[in-house]
Each structure stands twice: as C-alpha cells, then as structure tokens.
Amino acid sequence: MANIVIVGPVPPYRGGISHYNQLLLSALRSEGHTTHVISYKRMYPRFIYPGKSDKEPEGEGMNDEHVYYCLDSLNPFTWLKALRIIRKCHADVVVFPWWTAFWSVLISTLCLGLRLRRKRPRILFLCHNIYDHEGGRLKNTLTRLTLKQADTFFVHSKKHRKTLISLMPGKRALFHPMPVFKMFPSDRKLPEVPSDIPRKRHIGLFFGFIRPYKGVDILLQAVPLILHKVPDFHLVVAGEAMWDLQKKYAALVEELNIRDHVTFHWRYIPGKMAESYFRSADVLILPYRRASGSALITLGYHYEVPVIATRTGNFEEIIEHGKNGYVVEPENIQSLAHFVIQYFTKYKKKEFVSHLRGSHKTGDWKTVASMIVTGKE
Fold it and tell me: Are 152 and 122 in contact (CB under 8 A)?
C-alpha cells in the first residue's frame, strides 16, 4: 500500500474540484492507501474571488485528523509548513490538482522543495484544465513553467492528453473518463423544487457557476427561436453569477422579451439541492464558448437527464450525438436552438434516457485511484 498526499481544496470549499478531491480521498482509502490532504485555510484573497464566498453555506471542514487546513495562498510560511507535513507523511505520490495559473508560484515552490529531497515522491498533476479559460500570455507562460514540475499527468480528456504529450514530451499522461460524482445520492427524500420553477413545461436547465465563457447569453438569445416551435419551453438558470453578469443577463432577458420563459436562481446551489434541479429538468444545456471538461455531464447522466452541449473540450468524448444528447457548434445560436427544438418536437427524451441506461459508460473511482498510485493505465 502507498502513502498519498493530495494538495488541494476539500469541503467546506465549494465547487467541483473540492468535491472531486473528497471523492478521490475516499477512493484511495477504500483501496487501503494511507492518504492525507493538505488543504487551505485561505484559498483566494477576497479581491480576486469573483463570487460571494468560496465556502459552502454550512462552512464546516472535514473532521479528519489527516486533513490539514494549513495553506494560505498569500503566505509562503504556510507553504513551508505544508512541505514539512508532506515529509512527515513519507509520501510516495503527491497529487496536485491543477486548473488555474493562480496556483503557479505556490505549486512550483512546493515541487521545488520536494525535488530537493534525496528520496523524493512522485509528483502527479491532476489536470482539470491545462490553460485558464480566461487566459493570457503571462498565465500561459506560468502554466507551462509549472507543468514542467510534474513527473506524471492525469486527465479526463483525450484532447488534454494529446496537448500534454505535445507540450511535455517524454512525460507520461494518463487518461480515464470522468467518474460520476456520487456524493449527490438519489435514494433519499428530495428537497422541494423552488415554487417558481413551473410544472408541466418543457424545462431546459443551465446549472453551475455563471461565467462569460459558459455562454449563458448565447442560450438566452436562442430562447425566442425555441419558443416559435416549442411555446411551452422554459429555461432555468441556476448558479452564482460572477462579476456583473447578473445585471447583464437580466437586461438581456428584458430586451428579448422572454421574462415569462426564464427563471434565474442567482445563487450557489449546494450539493444537497442539486438533485431537485436535475429531476425537474427535461434536458441539461451547456452552451459553453470553450471548456476543458465538466463533471456536470456525468452528473446529468447519473440523474438520467440528457445533455445538449457545445463541441468543445471533452464534451463530444462523453456525449454520443443523437443517442444520449446532442453536440452543437460553439457560439451558434441557430444551431443550439435547432437541436433544442428537435429534442422536444421529436420526443427524444425517452429514447436518449433508454440509451443512457443501456450503454453509457463512465469512469470509476477505483480505477482512478489505482492509476494515480501506480502511474500506469
């Protein structure tokens, strides 16, 4: 059995990466590996984080003696403390979740400290993104310099693996499909769906943090086209809006005269409420301008909700076009509207859900844990 250290956020921090790390921790321990987590007492300084809070509403951390909330992104002395903890753990593998260049200096410093050891652990970068969604020359340069510190990469996108092999020749890049986030169980009493989500309508759902690259404005512009053919279509947008997007998108709804056909829930939706939104939806719509990947697709499939998404990132690796969803071109309002219309007017939900039940394959956490420990597929 191996000693593993994960350096990254876990609850009470919000978002998919925190949840992912929690599930990975559970998977590694279930396979008998001693696993520690070095997490944050402060992730982002307040002036950088665009949302209301980066923590769950309850705000309580994991009650686990092997989870250390010690890192501060702005305090290098806490980075040294993290190195001391890793050494005491006698780590065989140190896992660094990677998704933004904001962590470049911190992670590079930790990697340098680990490399100075005579017997050093294997350094694995678990890449949720490679480059930032809102990138730039400086961010891209920092990303490339930091990625050089890894011995091995692990990704959930074949496209990412190809990019890393090209970018870092000679280094191993492991691939496995994204597993389902089973921390959202489906065998309990559901919280009630908010009363402002209409019943007996054709419901399209956008779910998750609302940022410019996710293309909610494109979806809103498609709504009038959809309504011509599907007059009872209703869009639910559920998630916390970053920066001034709430004001911008609310104004766009008024401009398009679709107020009666769109419901906004401008807030972070905790995991215990997620299922109610998915169960109320007929289709999940992800109109991203660009993406690396999204656990939302596998989450949607877990709840048997077909997906219409753009041809970006690893979306078309997961969605079988015309079988369990549709893949459309990014930033194409007419194409997006066309496939939403086709989905409802040709009654595709039953067919797509049947295909999901019969043949759709996702990754599994046991295999992810094994590949991370061995460094092999």
Answer: yes
